[in-house]
Automatic annotation (TrEMBL):
It comes from the Bacteria. This is Uncharacterized protein.
Amino acid sequence: MKGLFQNVRTILRMQSRRPKERLLSLPLVLENQGLQQIIQVPINEFPLYLPMPIFPPPGILVGTSLSLPLSADVNFIHVAGPSFEEVSLRYGGCFVGSQLSFYPGYFARTIAKIAYCAAVYTLGIAPFKGSPIRRVILGEDLSIGHWVGAWTGDPANEAKGLHAMQVRMEDSNVHVILRLFAQFNTPEYHVVLQPTAGYFIQPKKFPWR
C-alpha cells in the first residue's frame, strides 16, 4: 500500500507517523527519443494520479478455479496538480510518467484485511475464527482472487469522504463492499467472508451497518 499510494499520501498530507520527514519533491520520469531521466518536482507542481487496481469479481461468485492467479489492471485517476499532458508540453512534448511499485496479491490481501476487520467489528470475532479468509490474509493460502475482487452491482458506497464500506449477508456468507478514497469516485471492491464451518449467523440478529 505504501508503494502504491505514497505520492497520494505525501501531496494530500495524510496522517503520518513522521510528519517532519515529509518529502518536499517527488520523482517524475521523462523520456524523449528513447532516453529516460528522472527529475525531482516540487509537490505543488507534481501531476498527482491515484492508482486504483481493477480486479475481476471474486472467483467464488463466478465459479472460477481456486488455482487461477489474481489478475489486475490499474486505473489512474487525476486528483491534483497539472495533468501528464500539461507537464509533457512544459518539457517539449516528451513522455511523462511516475514510478509505481505494485503487486496485485499484496494489495488484495490488504483489502481482505480491511474487510475482515469491518466484519469482526460488526459481528464479533466468533463467526470468523476459522474463516478461510484468515489464511489468505496471512499469505498461507494464495487463492486470494477466490475471495477478493471487484464489486459489480450498483454503487454501494457514496462517492464522498475518505473511505467507505458496507457489511452485508447473503445465504451463509458475509460480504463487505468497500471503497478507498471514495471522494475521488474510485471503484468498489468486494470481499466474501465465509464464516467458520458450522457457524450460523441469524439474519434477524444481524446488525446492519
